[in-house]
Specification:
The complex is a heterodimer. By secondary structure, chain A is an alpha/beta fold. Chain A has seven helices and 15 strands. The mean pLDDT of chain A is 92. Helices cover 26% and strands 26% of the residues of chain B. Chain B contains eight helices and 17 strands. In chain B, helix 3 packs across helix 4 and helix 5 packs parallel to helix 8. The chains are: A alpha/beta, B alpha/beta. The interface between A and B is large, with 76 and 91 residues. The complex binds flavin-adenine dinucleotide and adenosine monophosphate. Adenosine monophosphate binds next to helix 1, strand 6, helix 3, strand 8 and helix 4 of chain A.
Chain lengths: 260, 324
């Protein structure tokens, strides 16, 4: 038996320090030397897929990413970590794509692939939209659980029991029929590091490249009209001076507030 | 034609959640006038809640009932709302961005074929503002079409006060939805350990920015300066295994409001801030002057915790004659 699992991985810049905003535009410019990596929530999703593969022999784990050329590095990373195949849904430029556009591209691919389980992260760390997994589920008519912090596949691979983390530390527990889509919350597991054998295997492996024919309507569907640094509304005071001066200023403040 | 604002009420354990009332303040700020509240559930409890909502808000309320809505389930919510909302006229569907709201909001958007703008935290001149990169950057957004789903960040607006006018009308409709594909089990509340938040006057919290588990020693020494202190953490620090999840502060952790909250190497993602923003005095130490945590801090210190905390400890020892 075994299942076909698809993991959605997004590539994000490692830190916001190396991005630049273009005044009056909705584009982000990545400065020279920007380091990109896999979205952390997707690392948890990939690990969970690999754990399922270990329990259910014959399972295949594919990793898919939508983005420009650079995202193939994150797909490679997924292969090194243990994914079987990588799929790059390539888009021409580094433009912002709406969650709907990204989900449409993944749905276009996944429809053909017939997956038993699709896993995504709960959220991408850069755009923080929490949407792509759910939209993808709706497009593929799959039942969906978000914010999954525990999952257990039934032995017959027909259902999956999941616990969703909701506010206040409470877990909502549900059983979904397969095929299904789960969006994974951080902390569900401890993502592994790539093993040497997988790194060697991945080196020679080809990533399937699919040129994405983005419908014009999707590209036009731009909702972001501008990006900027938040205004500074707080009355917060920046302590100035040498580090030592800041340290004594802090102690004085705490003393005056009768905390120390 | 005026745009209609649908306010989707969320409830748990027979009570309307406060985030529902925050939506009303949000709609006021965006200048919405035509409001309709929608509440979903099973009889008879849901009808009482619908009346309460009509009383407190004065809004027209649609109360959609079905035995398949007895417990929250994404498919039931999506199908019921799809049956109630007609997108031929301009409308915004407002939903709290809670674990429930972001579960069904994007599904509903896809089902109605309208965009979903998520985690909105501010409005300026009718333009929606949402965070990116942990709150370091704000995006200004205008939905592209006449209709959209808008999910609103909990805590970003004050809940509106109860209105003094007459109660709005309640229309009870039966939602003809089919049973969901999912089986719903009982809620689970995982056992948690007390880490002393309740008694703590001072909470020193560690984020990913402390860099390594070794540097936790600095945080502990800093905490030891105070008499009644506890150690807090971000989810990221807990995920790395540096501290147990019982230390986590934020939407999916604990909510605290000590006299002093010190955020060390914490970016200030909205999910963290919502658990500590009511602390009396907030001091943040972060190497990034643009970090979002500085927007809620009373005192902002742009320094590396690895070098700065030792200076604080040293200076305090000198002053007090006790070493830490
Ligand atoms: C549904 C959901 C629920 C969530 N619930 C919670 C929750 O309850 N609580 C929570 O905390 N998070 C929660 N999160 C995660 C949240 O979005 C953030 O990812 C998390 O809070 C970030 O943690 P952090 O600030 O430690 O790490 P980062 O965002 O990585 O920030 C690290 C910071 O440290 C600074 N830094 C780096 N080096 C140094 C140095 N040497 N000295 C000083 N500063 C330094 C950096 O400039 C940066 O600002 C949730 C997310 C989701 C999607
Ligand atoms: N460009 C992308 N390529 C592949 N997967 C993506 C992409 N964007 C989002 N996802 C998936 O959807 C999840 C939620 O992303 P978002 O809705 O953008 O917050 C991510 O954790 C990924 O698993």
């Amino acid at each position: 038996m075994g299942m076909n699992i698809l993991v959605c991985v997004k590539q994000v810049p490692d830190s916001a320090d190396t991005i630049e905003l273009c005044e009056g535009s909705s584009r982000i410019i990545y400065k020279e030397g920007t380091v990109f990596r896999m979205n952390r929530y997707d690392e948890f999703a990939l690990e969970e897929a690999l754990l399922i593969k270990e329990c259910f022999p014959g399972t295949i784990v594919d990793a898919v990413s939508v983005g420009p050329d650079r995202v193939s590095l994150s797909i490679r990373k997924a292969l090194e970590t243990g994914a079987d195949q990588g799929i790059h849904l390539r888009v021409e430029s580094d433009q912002y794509l709406t969650p709907f556009a990204r989900a449409s591209l993944i749905a276009g691919f996944a429809r053909a692939g017939s997956y038993d389980l699709i896993m995504a992260g709960i959220m991408a760390e850069d755009d923080m939209e929490c949407q792509v997994g759910q939209i993808l589920a709706e497009m593929l008519c799959l039942p969906c659980a978000t914010s999954v912090i525990f999952q257990e596949m039934s032995k017959d691979e027909k259902t999956v029991y999941v616990e969703r983390e909701i506010e206040g530390g409470v877990h909502e527990c549900i059983t979904l029929p397969m095929p299904a889509l789960l969006t994974i919350q951080s902390g569900i597991n401890t993502p592994r590091y790539p093993s040497l054998s997988n790194v060697l295997r991945a080196r020679s492996q080809k990533i399937e490249m699919i040129e994405s024919q983005m419908a014009a309507a999707l590209i036009m569907d731009r909702t972001v009209i501008g990006l900027g640094y938040p205004r500074q509304p707080s009355a917060g005071e920046y302590l100035e001076g040498t580090p030592a001066a800041k340290a004594s200023a802090l102690l004085k403040i705490l003393h005056e507030a009768a905390i120390l | 034609m005026r745009r209609r604002f649908y306010i989707i009420a969320l409830h748990a354990h027979g009570k309307i959640l406060p985030e529902t009332y925050e939506l009303i303040s949000f709609v006021r700020d965006i200048g919405g006038e035509e409001k309709t509240g929608i509440i979903l559930g099973s009889k008879p409890g849901i009808v009482m809640m619908a009346r309460e909502l009509a009383q407190k808000t004065g809004m027209d309320i649609i109360c959609a009932t079905s035995k398949y809505l007895e417990n929250y389930n994404a498919q039931g919510y999506k199908d019921a709302l799809k049956g109630l909302i007609d997108c031929t006229d301009p409308c915004y569907i407002c939903i709290p961005h809670t674990a429930t709201g972001f579960d069904f909001g994007p599904l509903l958007g896809a089902a109605l074929n309208i965009p979903c703008i998520s985690a909105i935290e501010d409005v300026h001149d009718g333009v929606l503002i949402r965070s990116m990169f942990g709150g370091r950057i704000h995006a200004r957004i205008k939905p592209p079409g006449p209709c959209a789903i808008l999910t609103v960040q909990p805590g970003a607006w004050e809940g509106s006060a109860a209105c003094s006018g007459p109660a709005g009308p309640v229309r009870i409709v039966h939602s003809d939805i089919s049973p969901g594909k999912t089986i719903i089990h009982k809620l689970k509340v995982p056992a948690s350990k007390d880490v002393g938040f309740a008694d703590a006057e001072v909470i020193i919290s560690a984020g990913r920015g402390i860099g390594s588990e070794q540097n936790l020693a600095l945080i502990k020494r800093l905490a030891a300066m105070f008499q009644r202190s506890a150690i807090g953490a971000t989810r990221a620090a807990c995920d790395l295994g540096w501290l147990g999840y019982d230390h986590q502060i934020g939407v999916t952790g604990r909510t605290v409001s000590p006299r002093l909250y010190m955020a060390c190497g914490i970016s200030g993602a909205v999910q963290h801030i919502s658990g500590m923003r009511n602390s009396r005095l907030i001091v943040a130490i972060n190497t990034d002057p643009h970090a979002a945590i500085f927007r809620v801090a009373s005192y902002c210190i742009v320094e590396d915790i690895k070098t700065f905390i030792p200076l604080v400890l040293e200076e305090y020892s000198r002053m007090s004659g006790i070493s830490f």
